[in-house]
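Dear colleague,

Following up on yesterday's call, I've attached the two folding results inline so they're easy to grep. Please treat them as preliminary; we haven't cross-checked anything against experimental data yet. The first protein's sequence and structure tokens come first.
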Amino acid sequence: MKFLPASAVTLLLLFCYWLVIRSPHFESDDAYIIYLASTWEWHRFLYVPAIYQQLSAAHLTPLTVPFYSLVQAISPFSPDAFLNTLVVLLGSWILICSAFLRSHFKLSERYIILFVVMLLSVASTGTLLSRFYTAHYLLGGIFGTASLLALSYYSRTQRSAAYLIAVALMLLALLSKEILVAILPISLIVFISDRRLAGKILATAIFAGLAYLAYRGYMLGELMGGRAAGNGLSQGLATILETLPGFLKWYASNRGLLLLALVCTLFLSPQTSLAGLTIAAMLAAPALAAPHGFSHPELHGDRLFIASDFALAATVTLSLARWRFLEHLHGHPLASTAVGTIIIASLATSLYQTHLYDTRAQDSLEYRITRTILEHEPFPTAIYLPENYPMGSMIVALKKHDPRLREVTADCFEALQWKDANNLLFDSDGQPLTREELAHRCISFDPPPTLNGEVIFDKGVLRWNIIGSDQLAAGVYFPGHAFFIGARQFEERLIRPAAGEKYKLYAHDGVRWWFSEEKEVIFR
């Protein structure tokens, strides 16, 4: 019964977010992970480098595919199932963190509720729940926070099993998301007063860190490093500095209540606030290795800074608890009303911003096409996807899952060969096409253009250089994913193509199209 009020508030606020997100949807990262989960057994991503390297060079970790495989096994190709799972994961993380704050810092229930409200007032909570590929951040947070809870229990009981569980949870946190490496030094800071335990944590942190680096180096091989094949570090820092003003504006606008409370606590309880800010900074620091989080924070910032948001909310809560803030409010109805109004307004603003994001998602090409495919009756036997649809991998996975779907392509000439009437054809706006309309938009070049180029995977870098017919838009089409990359030159350390991966060069000029014969990616 101790956690009943805090649990009830957590469930209520998460339920509000769940109600506002009326259009859960897959995005391009989800599409590719679902494709891999349908292609390989989930456990092979944990120990086969050539398979793991197909997942990601940097941003996705081995536990991502097992998570998707589990949800897909329960409810395949269901955005609602993924949304419900993420709500459960975020709620679990909040409750585990609440348990740690209560057991280790002896916080009362009213301050635990304050922690929950501060955390869920962050406006990017809604986008975090809407982007299913953020699940490994939530898993990492759950494992990392649970390891702190286990260490707290060990510090009181000295039971070896609790310490072993804590170590296992730390390793699972690293396998979920490598930026949670900060949990190792944070554990040392939190338990520094217990010298014997701090010594054990230091030794364990060194071992766990080195073991993870060795494992990651073995699994990634030549893909170690950032995405850019050249001067990735200098380019990344330059991007961060260039986009920092816009990032700070986004960061502050999404955390108004939290930052306002933090400023107040710096005056009320400066020592606690500065200690908490140090931990929050440690959790945010790994984001410096992800410059896209600064250049496009509205797309990536929610997950990159979720762990530091937990730390900031905990910092505010601990600082106010030591100043006995809520006790000072008691008996001052005017001050209590003002504080309550600010909190309610902040939560309402966050929910409204989630509603706006959800509304924009409904207008997207990806949403329209994917929803049409998943809800179409009768189920189609063949699907043609437009050049600008980035989620062809998931539709290919759907073909593997449902034998009624026999053909998936983004090559318009292939689609024009289909004879069955039960086909779905889409234009570049996500609207259905008839076969006759597609024929008018897919005309062969006469004479065909002359383009040359090879797709090469060389020392961890995927690259190509297409030469010829410079007046035409050209790029590479991967039929196994129904996916186009519209670039004549490409050189990036991103993923490893599958063995025998096929591709076609393509070119177009309005309604005129050309595709080369299929070739295999060259490995060097």
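Below is the second protein, in the same order (sequence, then structure):
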Amino acid sequence: MSVMTTSSISSPPVNLLLKQAKTAVQQGHRQQARRLLQQAVRQNPQDFRGWLWLATVAQSPQASLEYIHRAEMLAPNNGTVEKARRWAEKRLARSQPAEQNSISGSMASRNWLKTGRWLVLTLIALLLLGAGAIAAWQYFQPNETETVAKTAVLNSSIAAASQKDSLAVAVATAVPAEPTATSTQQPYAPAKAVANVGANQPRPTWTVTPTPSPTPTPAPTIVPTFISPNNQQSGRPFGVGAHERWIDVDLSTQTLTAYEGDTAVLTTLISSGTSDHPTVTGQFRIWLEYETQTMDGRLLGYDYYLEDVPYVMYFFEDYALHGTYWHNNFGTPMSHGCVNMTIEDAGWIFNNFATIGTMVNVHN
């Protein structure tokens, strides 16, 4: 099978894309305008107009300010860009009080929920303690009926014994005493000898053997997606079948190769993590996929915010293979740890090759 390589595809010129996006905005089709502008900045990321217009259809004030910042880097003294920045800053300032109120309200409701939960648990604990105390008190209290009956029986026994003693004294006084016969003590016989004497003799008691309790079955161990931490080898990894699909990422050559067994079906350039944010190495399996996703690096302490990142395939924690529209410098490390690919190659792997569980072998 021949190896496929990335090829250029004819696209509309940037000016035509900008004109089509402007028409889509006027007709109220903001999502269509956003896709056209993203295509425009992919074709020419040095044209500040694409970034500036993309700010007008961004889904959040933060994204608008980020796009205007990129346009400002390309055209620092442009009056239109300065007006756009002032507009984006006002938009961001208006949105922040609403966000703060929403956060405060959600925190207050969460605190009330926690307080209510503790109150309910405390009440249940008090009820259980009270019920236990009442049960213990009733258990150790004497039964009045049983006490009266025991007292009556004891009194009757004492009276009967007194009468018997009086009768014995009277008989002893009237009848002369006779010599007492001496009783011979019976010899002691162990339990086995007693059992052989006769049917009328007592026999040893049988003891029931307790049934052993079942041993619990251990729970199965979950197999992680992370397989090997320090893999430095190329070639089909151990455990991958002769016809199984897998992906090899070579950081030293900045290339990605898709294999079926030992046959390469796609080879393309990539951009991995820089020296400050290196891409993790090892053998992994894809565990999560998104056709598009907004990536907010500020949540992890980074300085980027990217909307509608296409064909995202996570293979370890927040490391992913994905398409890239904000640069075209493939073959050079550019990312914060992810593996950047062209949108065409990422789309082919996402739609035609990889699935959840596909092996990803990353090495130097």
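For the second protein, one point worth flagging: Residues 21 and 33 are 4 Å apart (CA to CA).

Best wishes,
A.L.
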